[in-house]
Structures are given as structure tokens and as C-alpha cells.
């Protein structure tokens, strides 16, 4: 007898009920109210993840970072934010608004943009998606007076956070 898969339809109410606060381990002020909606639709084994994320006014999504193994994308649903991009020591900020899309391909360190979002005065809601690889290396440029750090994730678990 066939096992019935999870229902692929997820309501807005179910997404809102599933959202939880996630605090970034390197920045206790970076708090995302998030739910993995692709998992809710039964897509865990696809290698793809999509999250619904809400940021309160002025809150940063994460610490400035770049991925070597996993590409990411952001689609802004409502509110406003500032996209912070860093490459080769140069930092630029861009205003983002509903309907804007941000594509962040993975690549060897030094070939991709480090990035984060900072919510505007009324907050921001967005979809965040990307690859789910067995191995990812995340580079964090100098943050809060600390030197650059690298995080290795294997099989979804943090393996090593080390200074560079």
C-alpha cells in the first residue's frame, strides 16, 4: 500500500502559526521570525529550502556572510529593508522594497558578495530560499571587532567555527 505524502498545500495561517524566533549565534540582536515552508510542504528531500521570514524594525537578518557551497535568494514581500553587500573590502547599501529580488550565487571565498538585510522602520517580510547541500562553508568578514571567521556545516550540523 502506498504511503500518502505530505499535502503540498500550506495555508498562510499555518505558516504564521509555525513561525519561530531564531537568533543568530554570532549576533544576539539578529532575530528572525521564520518558518521553513518548503519542509511544511514535504520538500525536505529535494535539496531546496524556502523560508518565510519577518524582521522587526531595525533588526538585521544575520551577520555579514558569504556561502561557498549554497546559493541563496531573497524575494521581498512587504515592508522595506537595506541590503548590505560587501566585496573585496568595499561595502555598499541598497534600499529594497516589495517585489525586489536578490540572487546570491555560491562560490569560492573572495568571489561572492557577503550580505545581510537590515529591516526598515516598519519591518520587512520576505521569502528566503536556496540550496541544501551536504557541505557548506560560510565566511564571516570581520564583525564587531573580531577577525574573519569561517563556519563549516556538514549534514546540516555546525562542525567548526574558526578564525581565519
Provide a compact summary of the structure:
The protein is mainly beta and 164 residues long. Helix content is 7%, strand content 54%. The protein is globular.
CATH class: Mainly Beta
CATH superfamily: Jelly Rolls
Oligomeric state as shown: single chain
Please report the number of helical segments: 2
Which regions contain 5 or more consecutive residues with pLDDT less than 50?
Answer: none
CATH architecture: Sandwich
When the domains are counted, the total is 1
How many strand units?
11
Largest sheet: 7 strands, antiparallel
Binned, the helix content reads under 10%
Task: Calculate Rg over CA atoms.
Answer: 16 Å
Structural class: mainly beta
Description:
With 164 residues, the protein is mainly beta. It has a single domain (13-133), classed as Jelly Rolls. 7% of the residues lie in helices and 54% in strands. It has 2 helices and 11 strands. Strands 1, 2, 3, 5, 6, 7 and 8 form a 7-stranded antiparallel β-sheet that branches. A 4-stranded antiparallel β-sheet has the order 4-9-10-11, with no helix packed on it. A hairpin with a 2-residue loop joins strand 10 and strand 11. The model has no long low-confidence stretch (mean pLDDT 89).
Question: How would the blueprint of this fold be written?
Answer:
Blueprint: H1 12-18, E1 20-24, E2 27-36, H2 37-40, E3 48-55, E4 66-67, E5 72-87, E6 90-96, E7 101-104, E8 114-131, E9 135-140, E10 149-154, E11 157-163
Antiparallel strand pairs: 1-2, 2-3, 3-8, 4-9, 5-6, 5-7, 5-8, 9-10, 10-11
Amino acid at each position: 500500500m502506498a504511503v500518502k505524502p505530505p499535502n503540498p498545500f500550506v495555508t498562510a495561517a499555518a505558516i504564521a502559526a509555525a513561525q519561530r524566533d531564531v537568533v543568530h549565534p554570532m549576533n544576539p540582536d539578529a532575530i528572525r521570525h521564520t518558518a521553513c515552508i518548503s519542509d511544511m510542504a514535504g520538500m525536505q528531500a529535494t535539496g531546496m529550502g524556502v523560508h518565510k521570514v519577518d524582521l522587526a524594525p531595525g533588526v538585521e537578518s544575520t551577520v555579514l556572510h558569504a556561502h561557498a557551497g549554497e546559493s541563496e535568494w531573497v524575494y521581498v514581500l512587504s515592508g522595506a529593508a537595506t541590503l548590505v553587500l560587501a566585496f573585496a573590502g568595499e561595502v555598499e547599501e541598497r534600499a529594497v522594497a516589495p517585489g525586489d529580488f536578490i540572487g546570491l550565487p555560491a562560490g569560492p571565498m573572495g568571489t561572492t558578495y557577503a550580505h545581510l538585510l537590515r529591516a526598515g522602520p516598519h519591518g520587512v517580510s520576505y521569502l528566503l530560499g536556496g540550496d541544501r547541500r551536504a557541505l557548506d562553508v560560510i565566511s564571516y568578514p570581520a564583525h564587531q571587532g573580531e577577525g574573519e571567521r569561517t563556519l563549516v556545516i556538514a549534514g546540516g550540523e555546525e562542525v567548526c567555527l574558526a578564525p581565519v
